[in-house]
Amino acid sequence: MEPLVTIVVATKNSAKTVKKTMESISTLDYKNFEVLVVDGNSSDNTIEIVKDFSSLYKIRIITEEKKGRGAAYNRGIMEAEGKFVAFLDSDAMVATSSWIRFAVSAMEKDLEIGVVFTKVFSPPDSSFMQKAIDAFLCKGFTTANGAIYRKDAAVKVGGFNVKMNYMQEDELLKKLTDAGYKYIVNENDVIFHYHRNTLSSYIKQNVESAIGARMYREFTGQNWIIKDGTVRVGTLLFVTLMTISLAIFYPLLVIPFLALVYLGLFLKVNKETCPRYKWSRYTLGSPLFIMLSLLGYSIGFLSVKAE
User: Fold this and answer.
1) Quick check: 306 pLDDT over 80?
2) Nearest-CA neighbor of 118 among 135, 134, 100?
3) Is the dihedral of CA 88, 93, 95, 97 positive or negative?
4) In 3D, which of 11, 55, 19 has the Cα closest to residue 36?
5) Taking Cα atoms as reference points, which of 31, 34, 92 lies closest to residue 59?
6) What integer pLDDT is reported at residue 121 of this predicted model?
7) Mean pLDDT (whole number) for 215-233
8) pLDDT digits (tens, 9 = 90+) for 104-114
């Protein structure tokens, strides 16, 4: 018999998106699962929408009063009845039917695998901005959204760090690998998830991401975070100061300089992006959103007091 898998859907006031999330679960070709909704005490009709699916799936709903994704994820792990715990955010969707089957098969064959990450992409109906962001973020994989963990492994290493709002997945992965577990990335299946769709929310997300990165260094001692943050801040400062200097002393060179920066970022994105975006129109917009991400990241990185 196939081992039970618990699909954890962490949610709070997700009435606008959770219906699509719940509907997408029906496409799975793996049937031995339960859906565990960890709700942050929603004040809208999120739970009513979830209950509409109780005739399709085995659904349990619990309330987690503590704030933060880490607390919700950990509650999901502890309450899970399954051997494996799959995370699906309440604004995400299962895009391929074998998502769970692939991970379970891999972990049943190799008991040293503690987590299987799944590639996450922006859905087909995403805006140009969302797909332009996805074009340079799609190469990553360490996100809890779509990840399937071996429950006993996650419990053994202490689960997610509740003090972190970003990079909790990376911190948990570090604990798992330190404990001797391996990880793999499922390149065959896809989870859909929307990126931020306003400039202000996107910049704010990158501010929080930088703060999460500094906390990751604090908890893990990984000094590459400092090097990475310094490069990002340095790049933004260089482009900004060069643009201002040229505007003052050589104004005719401002546009050629910015064009050169744009070209460099455009070529970098197309070199590193996923096949679906290579040389697409979305990579044309990526340089702008990369610079905005550097702005937000620099604000967050410099706002955190150095240890």
Assistant:
1) no
2) 100
3) positive
4) 11
5) 34
6) 96
7) 95
8) 999 999 999 99
Report, in angstroms and rounded to the nearest whole number, the Rg of the chain calculated over CA atoms: 21
Beta bridge partners, 115, equal 149, 183
Task: Tell me if the pTM is above 0.85.
Answer: yes
- How far is residue 129's CA from residue 282's CA, in Å, rounded to a whole number? 8
Would the CA dihedral through 245, 249, 251, 252 be positive or negative?
negative
Q: What is the 3-state secondary structure (H, E, C) of 30-42?
A: CCCEEEEEEECCC
Question: 134, 276, 132: which is closest to 193 by C-alpha?
Answer: 134
Residues 209 and 142: beta-carbon distance below 8 Å: no
Strand residues in the chain grouped as ranges (E): 5-11, 33-39, 59-63, 84-87, 92-94, 113-121, 148-150, 182-193
- Whether 66 shows a pLDDT value over 90: the answer reads no
Q: How far apart are CA 135 and CA 251, in angstroms?
A: 32
Only one residue has tokens 């502890």, namely: 78
Instruction: Fill in the amino acid letter for 161.
Output: N
Q: Give 147's DSSP letter.
A: -
